[in-house]
Amino acid sequence: MTQKNKLLLIDGNSVAFRAFFALHQQLERFKNKSGLHTNALYGFHSMIENVLTKEKPTHVLVAFDAGKTTFRNAFFEEYKGGRSKTPSEFSEQMPYLRELLNGFGIKHYELDNYEADDIIGTLSAQANPAEFDVVVVSGDRDLTQLAKENVRVDITVKGVSELKEYTVESIQAEMGISPMQIIDMKGLAGDASDNIPGVTKIGEKTALKLLKEYGSVENIYNHVNEMKKSKMKENLINEKETAFLSKRLATIDQDSPITIKIEDLAYTGPNTEKLIDFYKEMDFKTHLSRLDTTEHDAENEANREAIVYETVTEISPEMFSDKMALYVEMLTDNYHTADIVSISWGNVDHIYVGEPELVLNSKDFQDWAKNPKFSKQVFDAKRTFVVLKRYGIDVENIQFDILLASYILNTKDNSKDLSEVATEHHYFEVASDESVYGKGAKIHLPEDPAVMQDHLARKVKAILVLSAQLEQHLAENNQSELFYDMELPLAMVLAEMEITGIKVDAQRLREMKVEFAERLLAIEKRVYEQAGEEFNLNSPKQLGVILFEKMGYPVIKKTKTGYSTAVDVLEQLRDQAPIVADILEYRQIAKLQSTYIEGLLKVIHGHNGKIHTRYMQTIAQTGRLSSIDPNLQNIPIRLEEGRKIRQAFVPSHKGWKIFASDYSQIELRVLAHISDDEHLKAAFIEGQDIHASTAMRVFGIEKQEDVSSEMRRRAKAVNFGIVYGISDYGLSKNLEISRKEAQNFIDTYFIKYPGVKTYMEEIVREAKDKEYVETLFHRRRYLPDINSRNFNLRSFAERTAMNTPIQGSAADIIKVAMIEMDKRLKEEKLEATMLLQVHDELIFEAPEAEIPILEKLVAEVMENAVDLNVPLKVESDSGDNWYEAK
DNA sequence: ATGCTCACG
DNA sequence: ACGTACGTGAGCATA
């Protein structure tokens, strides 16, 4: 027996309206880049997806209301009158609903003078029960009148994702009437939302009672005279006409003059290209990414143009030329250890793919790679450079990097997956790595080598196409210098730093490990005694139960999932709860033990005793670097116990030292520069202690000796607040003062530093206008939420607008310094090597004899990296290990 | 996978 | 009234 067809009929307007109100509280969260609200679209999308998966229809239609007036208004002018105006946030979404449906490949239809339910009613009546099961989806319960043998009506319950199914049987069971009698009920009870009057004083309950007795409106009036005298009887008689009118209004037309046939509604699945365009336009990121790796690939695989490439078995010099793209494939992230699985290169005329053994050992390939006369375009220059260096090949003249360029054009566009970056730029000819190799632990080479070869050739093609395109974009955005003079050269400097790595004294770490293990055991024992039981001290959940339930201490703060046991909470309990001192100590040591001692021991390379981090150049939204595997930018320093970890970071040669230089107050100096505030500038030009100076102005103190340490502390917090994009709330929390007091501080600060105030106002205004902010070197950060009507989103964007030019420009400055530093070390033929960058400091190792030279050279380079209207100041130190170089 | 906590600038 | 200070990454527990 063949499967019966299934016709899905959706009431477009009503479902969209439900979706709109279901996500109404989050209206401002659902907004695309251009400010269009998308909540109704999002909700509608979820509903469609759910219902398609569940019902697997063979035919689908979404019906829409045609316009304001319908045939019903012809005999009752006020039909659907009195409705409040449709919110503009809703109506602006309706045109895009059609785009969504086109993406899904779903037909939609509207008919002049008729409502969506008339179209649905007519089609459901036309569906032959022998051929079709029909499912109707609406947010309007009136449509339940259409239920019959082969027609089920699903009405949205909460939101739109949950549907309640109405069949003839369920309607009978729930209300005691047949679907057709729902019309009679409306005739009697009316419907306020549609402005159907009904009979005075008769509501749903009374209507049901009457219908159970008489069956229909007609029959009620046949017997109305037999009823005993009552107010209701009077109303019925007086309003007979209204009752019949109401019934007529409530009756869905099952024979409207539609011009479509059920056969036209055959559903053949989505149009992925259109759907992707729609997701992009709406900023539906999750839907987009899901599609990229699944249906999109599947469909594109069929749609993609075949790519021509050559699988090389022998390499010859003619295979290489200037301006070629190069891609080196590895299956895992860490290019310091990953194996190369394949290499591809080429230009628009010819793309080659080869096995790593063959290519890496080829003299022709090596010569080409190392020859600065031949420029190369890549995806991720640093990754490419580092991995080939491991095989003894120094790649020269990497002239373009589409990952770096993408990140500069939009800091959000920074995926490690080439196809994702390509998709962002509307290039769809590359499959995702996930679809080719799988993901997680199951990552593997495809069985058919041709699949990977094809994939790589496509990557090379994408690099070629996108290089040209992105280069153009950079120029349009005035970001060419940022790319060519800063980020690309920096990638090479970072590559060398990573390859050099930093030597770690594993023995020292192991000694600390033993010591910490003993202490942890002792603390644990004390805690269990005080708690009266053993539990997992690392579990905030279990700890919460012990502290706040078993021991009954007051709950100070809650998290989403339970009690907060964070440091600031425990600090407040310190006096009344002797156990917390132990818990805090445990936390501190446990953190050092697991993250730093054990964590670092795990990533020391066996052959050289060094650690090789990876700097992420395209992650941070401000332009800063980040460091992973391990993170060497958060090695403890604030507390002495943790700080000792730094003793394990040592020079890699005997007789060498660790040398460290850091910018003093670089962010406040940057602020002084970009705000051009007279007083802030003066403080730096005069070389004052900046926090003391702020304290003097804010607290009205004449002499610096009169600034108490408490005043300085507060002034320091205000300065931090200024850099972060000040808010009274944040400052009040930080200083543990009231919001009012915090606001007073801020007000006073702005009076004393009017230039800063003007800058803050200007930058926010500018951000609202352009929807992005820029650093000194034209690094951009887009702030789509800056014009949001949602307070939180908008406030966050405003603080970001204030902070990003400051933090980002500081990041720019140290990047310039690093490039110059690298150059100078080579020029001066010094053995000293740059090892690490920690946002505002650079760490080197050098022979002891070079230390005096570095003292001068590093400071000079860092201080003169850029010319601001305040001086930059650098402080340096050196020692036998990182701890000593404070 | 996600949330919490905590390390850094 | 709203409810957060800016930027990161790692380990652990828990779902």
TrEMBL record:
It comes from the Bacteria. SUPFAM superfamilies: 5' to 3' exonuclease, C-terminal subdomain, DNA/RNA polymerases, PIN domain-like, Ribonuclease H-like. Its EC number is 2.7.7.7. Pfam families: 5_3_exonuc, 5_3_exonuc_N, DNA_pol_A, DNA_polI_exo1. It catalyses: DNA(n) + a 2'-deoxyribonucleoside 5'-triphosphate = DNA(n+1) + diphosphate. Transmembrane segments: none annotated. It is an enzyme of class 2 (transferase). Gene3D superfamilies: 3.30.70.370, 5' to 3' exonuclease, C-terminal subdomain, 5'-nuclease, Ribonuclease H-like superfamily/Ribonuclease H, Taq DNA Polymerase, Chain T, domain 4. GO terms for molecular function: DNA-directed DNA polymerase activity. Residues 5-268 form the 5'-3' exonuclease domain. Keywords: DNA damage, DNA repair, DNA replication, DNA-binding, DNA-directed DNA polymerase, Exonuclease, Hydrolase, Nuclease, Nucleotidyltransferase, Transferase. CDD domains: DNA_pol_A_pol_I_C (cd08637), DNA_polA_I_Bacillus_like_exo (cd06140), H3TH_53EXO (cd09898), PIN_53EXO (cd09859). Residues 308-475 form the 3'-5' exonuclease domain. Belongs to the DNA polymerase type-A family. This is DNA polymerase I. It comes from Carnobacterium antarcticum.
